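Hi R.,

Here's the input for the zinc ion complex you asked about:
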Amino acid sequence: MRNLLKLIGVLISLLVVAVGLVNVPAVQDKLLDRAVTRQLLNSPTDLFEDDAMRVVICGSAAPMPVRERASACVMVIAGGKFYMVDTGNRSTNNLGLWAIPFSRTGGVFLTHFHSDHIGDLGEFNMMTWAQGRPAPLNVYGPQGVTEVVEGFAKAYGQDSGYRTAHHGPILLNPARGKMIPREILLEGDSAIAMDDGDLKVTMFSVNHAPIHPAVGYRFDYKGRSVVISGDTIKVDNMIKYSQDADLLVHEALAMHIVQQMQATAGGLGNERIESILSDIQDYHASPADAAVVANEANVKELVLYHLVPTPPNSIAEKVFMRGVSDIRASGVTLGYDGLTYTLPLNSTAIIQEDMNNR
Ligand SMILES: [Zn+2]
Ligand SMILES: [Zn+2]
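And here is the predicted structure with zinc ion in place:
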């Protein structure tokens, strides 16, 4: 007992000293130096070096306000580069927090031009350029992508000028800071958006009516594959282009929750919100719809993202997923920012981890 009291006394003394030390500027500077060094050395280059295909959910939320999640964004890593499918608001911040090496930027693929899918395009272009992207940014998309790219370029034009003037044209070469719109026209219900011999990206039409155009993308890399839905109702083309994919990243709107929210808004006399909640139900898929698509397409793993509404806790997650296990008992995951999948080559393995814990 006496020894225990002695130990507690020593610990309290140490604590008092430590608390005192953190007020000393020289100690603060040392701690700061260590933190900056750790941050600068903390670049997950192993994500790029073993030639596996990887998929990271870089934005799992939808337009409704939510803490600590970005809007629609999926990152695909293949062949030493990373590609963005949509750049929802705050997604660039996620990439920065995970220390993704921006010099490895491969390109952006836009599914459609709703603000929750394109909001961060200007930030993404600016940040990847400032941190060493070696070439202009290709932005692929359906008809209309040129207008979106030109609009962002105009809005960020003055800032681009400030940065080159401030840091010099060698560090911030204006030619590399540009975005190049790559408008892909569908031939029938699909088109090859990109093919470099190893990585093939297929664009296909989905149904997000009355929004046109709206597309999804399938990435095939050396025998592994991922499909990203963008925004759509349950539609045959999702099944057709998801056939036998390793991973399907599908949007989801929980109809039963949205209908309950709509009724509550109506009860409170908030007609505007009631009306919006009513409108959005006809152009999204439910979690159960996504599960049916995954089953019919023989997909190995289904990930839900673009969650409407985004569940704020584990109870809400259970409500969101209600009924899904009856349709698909396993191989389905509710997405979150940082959810990461590794698909090793010459393998059927699908390895799940959390980018936030790397
Ligand atoms: Zn949309
Ligand atoms: Zn959306």
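One thing worth noting: The radius of gyration is 23 Å.

Cheers,
M.
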